[in-house]
Predict the 3D structure of the following.
Amino acid sequence: MDQAGCERNVLGEQIVRFFRQHREEWRKFVSEFVPASNRPPLQVMAKFFVIRSNQPFDMQAYMRAQAEFIRESMNGSLDALNPSERQKVVAEWLRHHAQSHRDQIILEQARCIEQCADLIDPVLAELLEESPAST
């Protein structure tokens, strides 16, 4: 399997894990969003749900990516700072840029749902069909 296929599988696993962890919220969202008879495709509903939840699929991966993004946006200047100064600079960056960065990541996640549709659609449907007692 090529690297892109492997990354797609990892992404699909993250998406599935996210929806399983939020299965009750997912069911409630879909049931409140539209009546079942007029429900849009699962991918559309899943994208709306991800954006509304405003949560990363994988918080650890998100935090690593954010740390790397901060490092890159500081152009290596963090390395020259002592730990106390570095903490202040990072806190300042977070105060000014964290929500914008998170918004970009959440929108990118929503775009990834379509990319992994064949991996996640069966799980999304299954989660909607499960009775709450079976979870």
Summary: The chain has six helices and no strands. The first helix runs from residue 3 to 21. The chain has one domain: 3-134. The radius of gyration is 18 Å.
